Here is the input.
Amino acid sequence: MSEDVRELVGAVRTYLQVHGRGRHFATGSWVDPGSGRDGSAGALGGSSGAGDGPDHVPGTAPVAETVTDREFGREDFGSKLETVAPARIEAGDLDQLREVWGECTRCSLAGGRTNLVFGEGAAPADLMFIGEGPGEQEDLQGRPFVGRAGELLTKMIEAMGLSRDLVFIANIVKCRPPGNRDPEPGEVTSCLPVLLAQIRLVRPRVIVSLGRISAQTLLSSGTPIGRLRGRWHCFEGVDLMPTFHPAYLLRSPEKKKEAWQDLQLVMEKLREPHA
Ligand code: SF4
Here is the structure.
């Protein structure tokens, strides 16, 4: 392990020592009457990330509560990461991070999970996909995007001329929300430090966020996914392209064309010479 990576993993370890691996955060409520954020399944049902749809309902209020920098963990953890820029990623560095994060119980989602779904893929990788949270199959298998939505994501990646083992795939929260409800802000806050550390280790040139919750969380925005997608944003200094969640695309196949347009923009970006 390089010195920088050791420092990053050490920052996560220190963070967990200070904030506790088993601390249960109070969770607030997302305010979005159309999305089932009160704990019920979203209007469109299905697996995590299925909530893209309500954003397209005219007049539907956007998410009124977003995750602030303080809640996001930047205030006391992100600043530590500022100083860490791994020069070289070695096989096993992500394993070290996984080991340090351990069988986390920092939020109440731990109680309902079968497996913690850490994420998988290459590191470093030019491209990183970030979904919302594990669904039923992911929870059972301990791997991200392995159900029907996962099969579609695999096809999307292959259509880009890549393969799953060339990219990194993760979620905002690592444990399945009950009934596939949207993760609550406190759960997102509890889990974000490990995602930030993963991004530092993977060092993607481009992040593709999958679905409304992922995009709105990463961008601290209540803007509907239909208006976020199709244009470039920035997260942690990395170009970010929001697109629809594969679970939503399974139910709304007419949206695949727009998702493909988003991925074509990503391919163009990846073809640009390294800065
Ligand atoms: S969702 Fe994240 S913070 Fe919550 S218990 Fe799982 S790993 Fe820990």
Confidence is low (pLDDT under 50) at residues 23-49, 54-65. Residues 104-107, 109-110, 116, 173-175, 187, 190-191 surround iron/sulfur cluster (CB under 6 Å). Strands lie at 120-121, 127-131, 168-171, 206-210, 233-235, 238-243. The CA atoms of residues 52 and 251 lie 11 Å apart.
